[in-house]
Each structure stands twice: as structure tokens, then as C-alpha cells.
Design goal:
Cytochrome Bc1 Complex, Chain D, domain 2; 2 domains; 52% helix
Length: 145
């Protein structure tokens, strides 16, 4: 009888240790959502030492139209919109044309649970090209190629 109790106690301790270690290192979106304030940045973005002229123009357009949702330096905003400085938006997954189509037509939610993005009024194709250049330079500065 004592042998069974010892085995049961050892199993309970092992389960508790597993639970503590597996949840202590969690860094998934659910864990992050529970600790972030609404509107808080979702990514830590390293700025490049300098931006190209096209990216500087794109930054001005981004700040005027996109930053309210996607955050300063495309870091995303909790509860609002995803970070664009994220591996999901690397050029091999979302090419430059995807940014143009998103601005023109909006985007149905598919990678994130922020909801769908509406089309953005008042942006020219040139504006979106500059915004895309700005985002790409931010991405490269953060190891996203």
C-alpha cells in the first residue's frame, strides 16, 4: 500500500514540475495578450541607422495613415493590428504587391485575430510603394529578409 502511495505522490510531483516548467517559458500570443495593455506595442523594433529617401517618404505616409493601428515603426498594437515587422510579412510570404492590394481592397483576417483590415482611402499606389519600402527597411534591420 505504501509503495502505491509513493508512486502516486511521485507522479503528482512530476506533473506539477512539468506544469510549472511548461507554463513558465510560454511566449505564445495567448500569454502575451493577457499581460499587455490595450494599444501596447506587440514587437520590439530595432530602427535602421538610416532610411533611404523612398523609405523616409513612406514613413511619413505610414505615420499619417497606418500607425494609428499598426503602431509606431510598424510594431503593431495590442487589440488593434499586427506588427508588420514580423516574419509573417517577410517578402517571400507577403510580397510587395500584397501591401498594395491590402491598402486598396482591405484584407480578410487570416493570420491574426484582430479582425479584417478595411481598405485605406486616400493612398496612391506611390504612397503604398513608399510605405512598403519603409516596412521592408525596418524588417531588414530586424533580421527579416
Amino acid at each position: 500500500m505504501n509503495k502505491n502511495l509513493a508512486i502516486l505522490a511521485a507522479a503528482a510531483v512530476a506533473a506539477a514540475v512539468y506544469f510549472v516548467y511548461s507554463s513558465a517559458g510560454r511566449n505564445d500570443a495567448t500569454a502575451q495578450r493577457t499581460i499587455l495593455e490595450p494599444g501596447a506595442p506587440l514587437a520590439e523594433v530595432q530602427l535602421p541607422p538610416d532610411l533611404s529617401e523612398a523609405a523616409k517618404i513612406g514613413k511619413r505616409a505610414f505615420d499619417a495613415v497606418c500607425a494609428d493601428c499598426h503602431g509606431d515603426n510598424a510594431a503593431g498594437r495590442h487589440g488593434m493590428a499586427p506588427p508588420l515587422v514580423h516574419k509573417i510579412y517577410e517578402p517571400s510570404h507577403h510580397g510587395d504587391a500584397a501591401f498594395l492590394l491590402a491598402a486598396r481592397n482591405g484584407v480578410r483576417a487570416h493570420h491574426w485575430d484582430f479582425g479584417s483590415m478595411p481598405a485605406q482611402q486616400g493612398l496612391t499606389d506611390g504612397d503604398v510603394k513608399g510605405i512598403t519600402q519603409y516596412v521592408r527597411e525596418l524588417q531588414r534591420a530586424n533580421g527579416i529578409n
